[in-house]
Every structure is written in C-alpha cells, then in structure tokens.
Amino acid sequence: MEEIKCSCGGMFQYLGPEFLRTGNIQFLVDKDVEEKCIPCQLYVCDQCRALRLCADTPWVVQRRAWWAQERHHVERNQQLDQNRFHAFLKTFAGFSSQKLERIAGGGLFSGYDEVGQAAARQLLEERKANPDAAPREQEHVQPEPRPSWTRRKNSKPPWER
Ligand SMILES: [Zn+2]
After folding, report:
1. Model's pTM, two decimal places?
2. How far apart are the first and last CA of the chain?
3. Cα(47) to centroid of ligand 1, in Å?
4. 44 Cα–ligand 1 center, Å
C-alpha cells in the first residue's frame, strides 16, 4: 500500500474499502442503486483525522468512458435547464411572494418541476435580501368597498341630496 502524506504533515492510514453513495435519494425501487455508489478505498490521517477517499481503478475507467460518451448530451441538457431557469425568472418576476412560496414548495400538483421551483426560490431569496424590489402584490389588495349609494342608478351622493 503506497504511503500518502496529508497536508498537515501526518500520514494516511488505510481503513479498508468504502462505498460513496451518489445521486438523488430514490423513493421508488431503483434497480440501478448499486451503480449509484462509487467504490473507494478509505484512508484517515493519523494526525488530523482528515479522510481521504480514492476511487477504485475499474470504476474510474468506466466513468471516464461514460463521460466521454455522455458529456455532450449532459451539457446540452444543463444548457436547456439553464435557459428554462432564466425564462422562469422572467415569468415569475411579477408574481406575489405567496404565489412564489407555493411554487417553491413543490408538491405533486404544483405544476412546476425542480427548475421552476429553484427559480421561485431564487426570487424569494432576492426579495428577502432586498424587500423594496418586490412587486406590489396586486392579487392580495382588497378593493375599497364601494359606498352603498353608488349601487342605485341615478341616486345622488349623500352630500348632494
Ligand atoms: Zn492530516
């Protein structure tokens, strides 16, 4: 086993194999769950107890091949999500904070995916940081009740009677 020196001056000691879970938590049964682990070798510094994980070589080889093949596709999807994020920011700019809270909260029937939810969260953060920039919340403004005399046609206001 090769000796690895820590930046603190200590030496890393081998602590055996470990698996690093990756990706989002899957609520549904996921047959790929084993593929969402990175098989590693775990080391700990004998001085500062810093941990060091070194991925296993077969996994690195597979991963490099996967990235070489998928990189274009992944980057294009990231770009599309980025564009949608900015479109959501524009669309949501006039929404009330209450409406943004509902969108940001997600939920099955919110009608917005995680990109829309992230855009709503960003706008809410910006409004918290700078409350004056928030748009007027028109949809929650109660209209002034009309004076009762306007309901009757041709009736004069009280001061003209
Ligand atoms: Zn150390």
Report:
1. 0.52
2. 103
3. 5
4. 8
User: How many CA atoms lie less than 13 Å away from 78 in the CB half-sphere?
Assistant: 6
For residue range 136-149, what is the model confidence (pLDDT) as tens digits? 555 454 555 555 55
CA of 18 to the centre of ligand 1 (A): 19
Tens-place pLDDT, residues 16-27: 999 998 876 655
- What residues does the ion ligand 1 have nearby, CB within 5 Å? 6, 8, 10, 45, 47-48, 50
Buried (b) or exposed (e) across 101-115, using 16+ Cβ within 10 A? ebbbeeeeeeebeeb
143 CA → ligand 1 middle, Å: 66
